[in-house]
């Protein structure tokens, strides 16, 4: 595979857009995965290579949210343990199971999330007076984060929606703090998944690092936008992106 100037531009632009989308909601991998596959990467290699951009985007986004005081630190350990456990199992499944399973899992998850946001908006937008809970002693939160981690380790695309459902819907963080914690979780299980994919020799490093440049710029822009928009705007952006992710799952 030759990395031509056209492909470099494609990866940078799609990476930038995906970085913004992933920081504000999720589903950016529905742009970057097809871009990697257009370059000629097999689906399993594209799925693995995409994690390089996702990981670095998460680090930049985390730093930005932390700088604005929006990274909630009180329950990081409780949130990361089930998410990492799920991510490890999901990545192992993704590495050994047939590639054709990715699409039905992605489509089913995105349609479910779109219906949840539309029919039960409180699932992603807690009331302002609500206090966020802790994972400890909360089996529902444990289950939701374990499932989110598994999904993220398995397919990655759209995992932001699943994490927001767990962090805002179950633990009741507001959407800005949920997005910050979402990036923390994504960085954690993406690191686990990336390690497994590297072990399996499935990462194409040059396109992965080019993509990462775009996603990091996008994440920086996304944090700035998150600080300026309302909870209601973020909710509807989340809904639109979920619909787009559903359409992308059908097309690709």
UniProtKB/TrEMBL annotation:
Primary residence: membrane
Pfam family, one: TauE
UniProt KW Transmembrane keyword: yes
UniProt keywords, alphabetically: Cell membrane, Membrane, Transmembrane, Transmembrane helix, Transport
Parts of the chain that traverse the membrane: 79-97, 104-121, 141-168, 180-199, 205-222, 234-251
GO cellular component annotations of the record: plasma membrane
Cellular localisation: Cell membrane
Topology relative to the membrane: Multi-pass membrane protein
Family of this protein: Belongs to the 4-toluene sulfonate uptake permease (TSUP) (TC 2.A.102) family.
Name the record gives this protein: Probable membrane transporter protein
Organism: Pseudomaricurvus hydrocarbonicus
